Amino acid sequence: TPLGDTLNDMVAYPGIQDPSRDNYVLLISDGGDTCGGNPGKKVDALRNLPREVKTFVVGFGYGVDAGTLNNLAE
């Protein structure tokens, strides 16, 4: 799962910078980033955007890494 790359795309998405709307990210994953994208740092980048981004995380699949997903949600 390319979690880091996917979250990086969210940071770069122009609509997330729109001050006239609320921003939400719904992440559905097993929690494993097998592509080396460091999803924790990408979530931090979302949190550091000028507009608040509310994140929701749903564990999905066999062998869910609940610890990682909980850390991303917090």
Q: What's the quick description here?
A:
By secondary structure, the protein is an alpha+beta fold. The chain has 3 helices and 2 strands; from the N terminus they run H-E-H-E-H.
Topology:
Layout: H1 3-12, E1 23-29, H2 39-47, E2 53-59, H3 66-73
Parallel strand pairs: 1-2
In words, what does this structure look like?
This protein is an alpha+beta fold and 74 residues long. The protein contains 3 helices and 2 strands, in the order αβαβα. Strands 1-2 form a two-stranded parallel sheet. Helix 2 (39-47) links the parallel strand 1 and strand 2 (53-59). The mean pLDDT is 82.
Using the CA coordinates, give the radius of gyration: 12 Å
The 3D shape can be described as: elongated
* Strand-residue proportion: 15-25%
**Total strands:** 2
Outline the biggest β-sheet.
Answer: 2 strands, parallel
The secondary-structure class comes to alpha+beta
**In terms of per-residue confidence, which ranges show pLDDT below 50 for 5 or more consecutive residues?**
none
Strand order of the largest sheet: 1-2
Helix content: 25-40%
The overall pLDDT average reads 82
Order of helices and strands: HEHEH
Tally of DSSP helical segments = 3
- End-to-end span in angstroms? 20 Å
Observed structural traits:
74 residues, 36% helix, two-stranded parallel ribbon, alpha+beta, single chain
